Amino acid sequence: KAGVTQTPRYLIKTRGQQVTLSCSPISGHRSVSWYQQTPGQGLQFLFEYFSETQRNKGNFPGRFSGRQFSNSRSEMNVSTLELGDSALYLCASSWVGGSNEQFFGPGTRLTVL
Amino acid sequence: QKEVEQDPGPLSVPEGAIVSLNCTYSNSAFQYFMWYRQYSRKGPELLMYTYSSGNKEDGRFTAQVDKSSKYISLFIRDSQPSDSATYLCAMNQGQGAQKLVFGQGTRLTINP
User: By Cβ atoms counted within 10 A, which residue in A11, A52, A74, A94 is the most buried?
Assistant: First the structure.
């Protein structure tokens, strides 16, 4: 069974630009969550999508947004990039309805210059 | 105060040693507890997943949950150099609340 895939793996952007990251969950998983990982703050929850609806949201500004498609694939967007947005962005998928286990992808490493 | 506290280490032990990693938490609503292993420049890999208080064993790994003390542990027996990684505890409330709250992670090195 294929794992969670994320594209692109690496991105370099400049301040003020916007970026879109993509995540394909494990087949059959309908929940997709996004996390930001930085050395200072660790892993922090951004938001979760289930059935194309945002179900949970973390404490991040509105510049961070996402969406989910009918095939459960998800994208997250960051607008007006700031230096502090440099981080590893991780996507996790889970099968909702029983086990709560979340499986992570390899992440997208974003560098903002 | 953070909801989940984890000693960031670093922790360095000789090969074959028993390793103990721990987390404490403050939110009594947490019901599901996980341990992830993360190698450098990789995504976290789910190692152990527990719901109730008590022990759960999987090969060389044992996860322990004490809800009354709000304390969870991961034990690694017969540690190997390939176990060198950052170990993250994580937990959530379940019931549709998918948000995982993570500890800071403990960097572990197993010396041959």
Answer: A74
